[in-house]
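Why this split exists: single-chain examples teach little about how molecules sit against one another. For that reason, every record in the complexes split bundles all components of an assembly together and asks for one structure covering all of them. Below is a record exactly as it appears in the raw files.
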Amino acid sequence: MTQIRGPVRQIDENRFENLLTDEEKELLGMLPAVVVEAIESHSPYVTRLFPPTYPFDDAAQRGIEKADPDSLADAHRRLLEGLAASVTKPVLTHEDLANWVGAINDIRLLIGTALDVYEEMDRPGEDDPRFQDFVIFDYLTWLQGSLLAFLSQQVDQGDNP
Amino acid sequence: MPTGTATEEEIRTGSSVSIDSPWRVVLWDDPINLISYVIWVLETLFGYSTTKATALTMEVHNNGRAIVSHGPREKAEADASRLHQKGLWATLERESD
Protein backbone atom coordinates (compact mmCIF):
# COMPACT_ATOMS: atom_id res chain seq x y z
CA MET A 1 0.00 0.00 0.00
CA THR A 2 1.34 3.45 -0.90
CA GLN A 3 0.80 6.50 1.28
CA ILE A 4 0.55 9.81 -0.58
CA ARG A 5 3.05 12.31 0.78
CA GLY A 6 1.68 15.59 2.09
CA PRO A 7 3.57 18.90 2.08
CA VAL A 8 3.79 19.01 5.89
CA ARG A 9 3.35 16.73 8.89
CA GLN A 10 1.84 18.11 12.07
CA ILE A 11 4.21 17.75 15.03
CA ASP A 12 2.06 19.41 17.67
CA GLU A 13 -0.53 22.17 17.94
CA ASN A 14 1.59 24.85 16.28
CA ARG A 15 4.51 23.06 14.63
CA PHE A 16 4.61 21.37 11.25
CA GLU A 17 7.48 19.43 9.72
CA ASN A 18 8.32 20.68 6.23
CA LEU A 19 8.16 17.65 3.90
CA LEU A 20 8.66 19.51 0.61
CA THR A 21 11.33 18.12 -1.69
CA ASP A 22 14.34 20.21 -2.68
CA GLU A 23 12.78 20.67 -6.12
CA GLU A 24 9.54 22.00 -4.60
CA LYS A 25 11.46 24.35 -2.29
CA GLU A 26 13.43 25.67 -5.24
CA LEU A 27 10.25 26.31 -7.22
CA LEU A 28 8.45 27.97 -4.29
CA GLY A 29 11.53 30.04 -3.52
CA MET A 30 11.64 31.34 -7.08
CA LEU A 31 7.98 31.97 -7.96
CA PRO A 32 7.34 34.79 -5.45
CA ALA A 33 9.98 36.95 -7.16
CA VAL A 34 8.23 36.41 -10.49
CA VAL A 35 4.99 37.77 -9.05
CA VAL A 36 6.72 40.70 -7.30
CA GLU A 37 8.40 41.58 -10.60
CA ALA A 38 5.03 41.39 -12.37
CA ILE A 39 3.51 43.72 -9.74
CA GLU A 40 6.35 46.23 -10.03
CA SER A 41 6.24 46.21 -13.83
CA HIS A 42 2.42 46.58 -13.83
CA SER A 43 2.00 43.39 -15.83
CA PRO A 44 -1.54 42.90 -17.19
CA TYR A 45 -1.56 39.50 -15.49
CA VAL A 46 -1.67 41.04 -11.99
CA THR A 47 -5.10 42.63 -12.48
CA ARG A 48 -6.77 39.99 -10.27
CA LEU A 49 -4.46 41.03 -7.42
CA PHE A 50 -5.79 44.58 -7.63
CA PRO A 51 -9.57 44.46 -8.02
CA PRO A 52 -11.44 47.78 -7.90
CA THR A 53 -13.52 48.52 -4.82
CA TYR A 54 -15.85 50.78 -6.81
CA PRO A 55 -15.97 49.36 -10.37
CA PHE A 56 -18.84 51.65 -11.38
CA ASP A 57 -17.69 54.85 -9.67
CA ASP A 58 -14.39 56.11 -11.09
CA ALA A 59 -14.21 59.09 -8.75
CA ALA A 60 -14.66 56.97 -5.63
CA GLN A 61 -12.12 54.45 -6.94
CA ARG A 62 -9.57 57.20 -7.54
CA GLY A 63 -10.22 58.51 -4.04
CA ILE A 64 -9.56 55.20 -2.33
CA GLU A 65 -6.43 54.58 -4.40
CA LYS A 66 -5.11 58.05 -3.64
CA ALA A 67 -5.70 57.63 0.10
CA ASP A 68 -3.24 54.72 0.36
CA PRO A 69 -1.69 54.03 -3.05
CA ASP A 70 0.83 51.32 -2.13
CA SER A 71 -0.89 49.41 0.67
CA LEU A 72 -2.31 46.57 -1.43
CA ALA A 73 0.91 46.06 -3.41
CA ASP A 74 2.85 46.05 -0.13
CA ALA A 75 0.49 43.47 1.37
CA HIS A 76 0.97 41.15 -1.61
CA ARG A 77 4.73 41.71 -1.52
CA ARG A 78 4.91 40.84 2.19
CA LEU A 79 3.01 37.58 1.63
CA LEU A 80 5.20 36.58 -1.31
CA GLU A 81 8.49 37.47 0.35
CA GLY A 82 7.34 35.61 3.46
CA LEU A 83 6.91 32.44 1.43
CA ALA A 84 10.33 32.77 -0.20
CA ALA A 85 11.97 33.41 3.17
CA SER A 86 10.37 30.48 5.01
CA VAL A 87 10.13 27.74 2.37
CA THR A 88 13.37 26.06 3.47
CA LYS A 89 12.57 26.12 7.20
CA PRO A 90 12.50 22.54 8.52
CA VAL A 91 9.76 23.34 11.03
CA LEU A 92 6.87 25.67 10.23
CA THR A 93 4.31 27.42 12.38
CA HIS A 94 0.60 27.92 11.84
CA GLU A 95 1.43 31.52 10.86
CA ASP A 96 3.89 30.26 8.23
CA LEU A 97 1.24 27.99 6.71
CA ALA A 98 -1.35 30.80 6.68
CA ASN A 99 1.20 33.04 4.93
CA TRP A 100 2.02 30.32 2.42
CA VAL A 101 -1.63 29.78 1.56
CA GLY A 102 -2.08 33.49 0.79
CA ALA A 103 1.14 33.73 -1.21
CA ILE A 104 0.35 30.59 -3.20
CA ASN A 105 -3.03 32.11 -3.96
CA ASP A 106 -1.33 35.22 -5.36
CA ILE A 107 0.90 33.05 -7.56
CA ARG A 108 -2.08 31.00 -8.74
CA LEU A 109 -3.96 34.22 -9.58
CA LEU A 110 -1.06 35.42 -11.73
CA ILE A 111 -0.54 32.11 -13.54
CA GLY A 112 -4.27 31.43 -13.82
CA THR A 113 -4.86 34.86 -15.34
CA ALA A 114 -1.99 34.39 -17.80
CA LEU A 115 -3.39 30.98 -18.79
CA ASP A 116 -6.97 32.28 -18.85
CA VAL A 117 -8.04 29.44 -16.59
CA TYR A 118 -11.73 28.70 -16.18
CA GLU A 119 -13.62 26.12 -14.14
CA GLU A 120 -13.59 22.50 -15.41
CA MET A 121 -11.05 23.53 -18.07
CA ASP A 122 -9.38 20.70 -19.98
CA ARG A 123 -5.61 20.62 -19.66
CA PRO A 124 -3.49 20.96 -22.84
CA GLY A 125 -1.36 18.12 -24.14
CA GLU A 126 2.38 17.85 -23.59
CA ASP A 127 3.09 19.36 -26.99
CA ASP A 128 1.25 22.58 -26.02
CA PRO A 129 3.60 25.45 -25.04
CA ARG A 130 1.40 26.12 -22.00
CA PHE A 131 1.75 22.56 -20.71
CA GLN A 132 4.50 23.26 -18.16
CA ASP A 133 2.68 26.31 -16.77
CA PHE A 134 -0.45 24.21 -16.27
CA VAL A 135 1.63 21.58 -14.46
CA ILE A 136 2.88 24.28 -12.07
CA PHE A 137 -0.62 25.75 -11.69
CA ASP A 138 -2.08 22.32 -10.85
CA TYR A 139 0.75 21.58 -8.43
CA LEU A 140 0.07 24.88 -6.63
CA THR A 141 -3.64 24.03 -6.53
CA TRP A 142 -2.82 20.69 -4.88
CA LEU A 143 -0.37 22.33 -2.46
CA GLN A 144 -2.77 25.09 -1.45
CA GLY A 145 -5.60 22.60 -0.93
CA SER A 146 -3.37 20.35 1.16
CA LEU A 147 -2.25 23.22 3.39
CA LEU A 148 -5.81 24.44 3.75
CA ALA A 149 -6.79 21.01 5.05
CA PHE A 150 -4.36 21.51 7.95
CA LEU A 151 -5.47 25.09 8.58
CA SER A 152 -9.17 24.19 8.44
CA GLN A 153 -8.66 21.58 11.15
CA GLN A 154 -7.33 24.35 13.36
CA VAL A 155 -10.30 26.59 12.57
CA ASP A 156 -12.71 23.71 13.33
CA GLN A 157 -11.06 23.27 16.71
CA GLY A 158 -11.69 26.94 17.55
CA ASP A 159 -14.77 28.55 18.99
CA ASN A 160 -16.04 30.57 16.08
CA PRO A 161 -19.54 32.04 16.46
CA MET B 1 -28.86 60.18 -7.65
CA PRO B 2 -28.61 62.61 -4.69
CA THR B 3 -29.02 66.30 -5.38
CA GLY B 4 -28.11 69.44 -3.46
CA THR B 5 -24.91 70.44 -1.66
CA ALA B 6 -22.08 67.90 -1.67
CA THR B 7 -20.86 66.69 1.71
CA GLU B 8 -17.23 66.91 2.79
CA GLU B 9 -16.84 63.18 2.10
CA GLU B 10 -18.28 63.52 -1.37
CA ILE B 11 -15.82 66.30 -2.12
CA ARG B 12 -12.88 64.27 -0.71
CA THR B 13 -13.65 61.17 -2.74
CA GLY B 14 -15.31 62.84 -5.67
CA SER B 15 -18.11 60.36 -5.14
CA SER B 16 -21.76 61.05 -5.73
CA VAL B 17 -22.77 58.74 -2.89
CA SER B 18 -23.00 59.66 0.79
CA ILE B 19 -20.75 58.27 3.52
CA ASP B 20 -23.75 57.97 5.82
CA SER B 21 -25.51 55.35 3.72
CA PRO B 22 -25.07 51.74 4.80
CA TRP B 23 -22.80 49.78 2.48
CA ARG B 24 -22.59 46.15 1.42
CA VAL B 25 -19.39 44.25 0.67
CA VAL B 26 -20.04 42.00 -2.32
CA LEU B 27 -17.80 39.01 -2.93
CA TRP B 28 -17.67 37.85 -6.56
CA ASP B 29 -17.05 34.43 -8.07
CA ASP B 30 -13.89 33.74 -10.03
CA PRO B 31 -12.56 30.58 -11.65
CA ILE B 32 -9.21 30.49 -9.86
CA ASN B 33 -9.76 30.77 -6.12
CA LEU B 34 -10.46 27.44 -4.43
CA ILE B 35 -13.75 27.04 -2.56
CA SER B 36 -11.82 25.80 0.48
CA TYR B 37 -9.65 28.94 0.34
CA VAL B 38 -12.61 31.31 0.23
CA ILE B 39 -14.22 29.50 3.19
CA TRP B 40 -10.98 29.74 5.16
CA VAL B 41 -10.58 33.46 4.39
CA LEU B 42 -14.15 34.24 5.53
CA GLU B 43 -13.58 32.25 8.72
CA THR B 44 -10.27 33.87 9.57
CA LEU B 45 -10.99 37.47 8.48
CA PHE B 46 -14.52 37.83 9.80
CA GLY B 47 -14.67 35.09 12.43
CA TYR B 48 -17.58 33.39 10.70
CA SER B 49 -18.47 29.82 11.63
CA THR B 50 -17.60 27.13 9.10
CA THR B 51 -21.33 26.74 8.40
CA LYS B 52 -21.82 30.44 7.64
CA ALA B 53 -18.58 30.77 5.66
CA THR B 54 -19.44 27.69 3.60
CA ALA B 55 -22.97 28.94 2.89
CA LEU B 56 -21.67 32.33 1.72
CA THR B 57 -18.96 30.72 -0.40
CA MET B 58 -21.44 28.39 -2.09
CA GLU B 59 -23.72 31.37 -2.72
CA VAL B 60 -20.81 33.07 -4.48
CA HIS B 61 -20.03 29.89 -6.42
CA ASN B 62 -23.62 29.21 -7.47
CA ASN B 63 -25.00 32.74 -7.92
CA GLY B 64 -21.85 34.60 -8.90
CA ARG B 65 -21.88 36.88 -5.86
CA ALA B 66 -22.82 37.16 -2.19
CA ILE B 67 -22.96 39.90 0.42
CA VAL B 68 -20.34 38.95 2.99
CA SER B 69 -20.30 42.06 5.17
CA HIS B 70 -22.04 45.38 5.59
CA GLY B 71 -21.91 48.55 7.64
CA PRO B 72 -20.73 52.15 7.47
CA ARG B 73 -18.62 53.05 4.47
CA GLU B 74 -15.31 53.14 6.36
CA LYS B 75 -15.85 49.64 7.78
CA ALA B 76 -17.01 48.28 4.43
CA GLU B 77 -13.94 49.71 2.69
CA ALA B 78 -11.69 48.15 5.33
CA ASP B 79 -13.40 44.77 4.91
CA ALA B 80 -13.06 44.93 1.11
CA SER B 81 -9.40 45.88 1.48
CA ARG B 82 -8.75 42.85 3.70
CA LEU B 83 -10.42 40.60 1.13
CA HIS B 84 -8.31 42.16 -1.65
CA GLN B 85 -5.17 41.46 0.36
CA LYS B 86 -6.19 37.79 0.33
CA GLY B 87 -6.70 37.86 -3.43
CA LEU B 88 -10.49 37.82 -3.35
CA TRP B 89 -12.62 40.01 -5.60
CA ALA B 90 -14.78 42.29 -3.44
CA THR B 91 -16.66 45.46 -4.31
CA LEU B 92 -18.85 47.91 -2.44
CA GLU B 93 -22.42 48.94 -3.10
CA ARG B 94 -24.95 50.97 -1.19
CA GLU B 95 -27.64 49.00 0.59
CA SER B 96 -30.27 51.09 -1.21
CA ASP B 97 -28.94 49.98 -4.64
